[in-house]
Amino acid sequence: MSPIVLGGLLGALFGASLLLVVRRLPFLRRPSVDDRIGPYLRDLGGSDVFLGVVDSGSPFYAILRLFGPSLRAGANRLERILGGAGSIRRRLARAGIERSVEEFRIEQVLWGTAGFGAGLVVSIVALAFGIGNPVGMLMFCGLLGVLGVLARDTYLTTQVRRRERRLLAELPTVAELLALSVAAGEGPAAALDRVARSCRGELAEELKRVLGETRAGETLVRALDGLADRTGLLALSRFADGLAVALERGTPLADVLRAQAGDIREAGRRELIESGARREVAMMIPVVFLVLPVTIAFAFYPGAVGIRLIAG
């Protein structure tokens, strides 16, 4: 590495460190109203949780608390740039993640920082071997940071899809168990409680949440409507709506649940057939663009070589 590049990197590192120190000086910090009254409103008997880490003496929690203000500032700035807090809140609820939008933005900042750090390490190694230039490497680091921020958003969408697939896979079994419990003489709330305690999975946790809302004073119909709104799945919305309508109008609940379980299984079969058809079409891409050209090359290459030898 040339002395000019090394001096520029050291100067940039020193300038960034000095800027961080100056920004954190006490007389330059203006605490917000939330920061001033937060300690007086905090529940002294409960544990403090930050980014899913419970208050403890671990070094990881200490590091999170040390850089907490900077992370929150970066999260607020990222929220002003990207926006879409409502969409993120809905996707967090559909993914079953008990976190706020601010915590998700902090995770995006951490992912972006990790991407920028990885790019910085690669850039330093490349510059040490004389590859590239500092400006291009800085742009490369910034690009990796942006990709890290977007990767966390994409991973949230992946988490939503995985949870929705698990919910759809569990729904027919849960519906049939509810039908058996109701046919055995139990009421709707008791049947939900029995199935929620007997089953394991995402849908069982949602049923436990519904029962918790009913014990808190909410009606079962409204709690089921909240379940349909949280998940966003059409099949689960139909299940909750059918259960609510059966409760309101006195329709035989066991028959409704059995019919819904059959409809859900039939919809799963149709989706499986459609997925197989799409994958069959997708398999034509490697066949046409990879296997077929290689086959043609193996078929015609010996003949082309023989014609060239005869002509020579």
From TrEMBL:
TM region positions: 6-22, 109-131, 137-156, 281-301
Pfam family, one: T2SSF
Domain of life: Bacteria
Chain ranges of the Type II secretion system protein GspF domain: 176-298
UniProt-listed InterPro entries: T2SS_GspF_dom
Name of the protein this chain belongs to: Tight adherence protein C
Main location: membrane
Keyword Membrane: yes
Keywords: Cell membrane, Membrane, Transmembrane, Transmembrane helix
Topology term for the membrane: Multi-pass membrane protein
Compartments reported by the entry: Cell membrane
GO cellular component, one term: plasma membrane
